[in-house]
Amino acid sequence: MSNEQILEAIKGMSVLELNDLVKAIEEEFGVTAAAPVAAAGAAAVEAEEQSEFDVVLMSAGASKINVIKAVREITGLGLKEAKDLVDNAPKALKEKVSKEEAETVKAKLEEAGANVEVK
């Protein structure tokens, strides 16, 4: 069996199966795998793709009026509420939205002149 085949087999295992494998290796070879298990757990967390994003208005930039109009369009807020939101940047405009929606909102705001982050 090649290293690549072993890695592919490990990738297909559940966390419980990996735990049992580590215990079996420890018993068979008389070693402790505390550090590799922690690293494998961290890698598994990083491998999970983020599915919810927050769109944060960092600043209005040079054309504040256009940004306020864009914020009103995106959020459905009234003029005063949208202005207050823009004046108090950085503020979250949309929270827990899909990647596509976050990118669309970001594009609209940047087109209006705002500085935006997707987190």
TrEMBL record:
Keywords: Ribonucleoprotein, Ribosomal protein. CDD domains: Ribosomal_L7_L12. GO terms for cellular component: ribosome. Residues 53-119 form the Large ribosomal subunit protein bL12 C-terminal domain. Residues 3-47 form the Large ribosomal subunit protein bL12 oligomerization domain. SUPFAM superfamilies: ClpS-like (SSF54736), Ribosomal protein L7/12, oligomerisation (N-terminal) domain (SSF48300). Homodimer. Part of the ribosomal stalk of the 50S ribosomal subunit. Forms a multimeric L10(L12)X complex, where L10 forms an elongated spine to which 2 to 4 L12 dimers bind in a sequential fashion. Binds GTP-bound translation factors. Forms part of the ribosomal stalk which helps the ribosome interact with GTP-bound translation factors. Is thus essential for accurate translation. NCBIfam families: L12 (TIGR00855). This is Large ribosomal subunit protein bL12. It comes from Paenibacillus macquariensis.
